[in-house]
Design goal:
The structure is a single chain. This protein has about 270 residues and is of the alpha/beta class. It is about 40% helix and about 20% strand. The chain has helices spanning about 10, 15-40, 60-65, 80-85, 125-135, 155-160, 180-190, 210-220, 225-235, 240-250, and strands at about 50, 70-75, 95, 110-115, 135-150, 195-200, 260-270. A 7-stranded mixed sheet has the order 3-2-1-4-5-7-6, with helices on both faces. Strand 2, helix 4 and strand 3 (about 95) form a beta-alpha-beta unit. The protein is elongated, with a radius of gyration of 19 Å. About 40% of the residues are buried.
Length: about 270
């Protein structure tokens, strides 16, 4: 299997992503939009918005609802994700398949607002992705980012694997630097943004039942989740590990009710 974060495997997860992941990411995205709007109104004449790593369209849809006259470019590496947005037929929204680390099809100084939620950390070169966002921003443009600080729903899987491999650490797509608020601020400044502000929020991911969580985590084909369990399934360990995984969730994580996340929001100017 190719690197799931560099392929269209995200497209196969788009339906499950829209059904469950948006439940968690939407409040953070809407808070970011409100904060960016306070700094630089989306309703300003001539405003143009860039949703980089648009996924299934949480940011794009919220922007279109609140600011109907602002043109939006929704970009993602996954055609499958963008199809989810296109099916909504949102006015003044254009979708384009783009690699966040190479936005060369876009000209310098194109947008007054550039947003990205829960994507930069998943790229093979996050710093380059930030540099590209800086490049496509106009002078004076506003940047808005949501970044994971803690992503706790993989903790039960990590505990499961440690019964077989005591030193196991979940293979997240990002390095620790990219989940540290101070380092993230430094990276944003390094590429040229100024007036960097940040805040921390703690959304919760409460599943209605353990079965809902098991289905989402193990059957949604989400590439980040597959990084954890697929290597073990390939070894023929599913029938041994899945019951243990389910028991840990029920006994130690409140039946999939006790997932506490940490999210960093950043706003900056070019």
């Amino acid at each position: 299997m190719s690197d799931p974060l560099l392929s269209d495997d995200w497209g196969t997860a788009s339906a499950a992503y829209a059904a469950r992941t948006e439940y968690v990411t939407r409040p953070s995205a809407e808070e970011l939009i409100s904060w960016v709007h306070e700094v630089s109104p989306f309703s300003t004449p001539g405003a143009t918005a860039f949703d980089n790593g648009a996924g299934s369209g949480v940011v794009t849809t919220a922007l279109r609802t609140r600011f109907p006259d602002t043109p939006i470019l929704a970009a993602d590496l996954s055609p499958g994700m963008l199809e989810t947005i296109e099916k909504k037929r949102l006015p003044q929204v254009r979708c384009q398949v783009l690699d966040a680390v190479d936005l060369s099809p876009l000209g310098d100084g194109t947008f007054t607002h550039a947003l990205s939620t829960f994507m930069i950390q998943f790229t093979p070169d996050p710093l380059r992705a930030l540099r590209e966002m800086y490049r496509v921003c106009k002078i004076g443009a506003t940047l808005g980012l949501c970044m994971w600080g803690e992503l706790c729903f993989d903790a039960p899987w990590e505990e499961t694997v440690r019964h077989f491999e005591p030193d196991y650490t979940y293979p997240h797509a990002w390095t620790p630097d990219w989940s540290d608020e101070g380092r993230l601020r430094a990276y944003i400044q390094e590429v040229g943004f100024k007036d960097v502000q940040s805040k921390t929020i703690r959304p919760r991911w409460d599943f209605e039942s353990p079965e809902e969580y098991f289905k989402f985590y193990l059957e949604s084909k989400n590439p980040e989740f597959m990084r954890g369990y697929q290597p073990w399934w390939n070894k023929g360990m599913e029938t041994t590990m899945r019951p243990m995984f389910e028991r840990i969730v029920r006994e130690k994580y409140g039946g999939a009710k006790d997932f506490d996340m940490k999210v960093f929001l950043f706003v900056a100017r070019k």
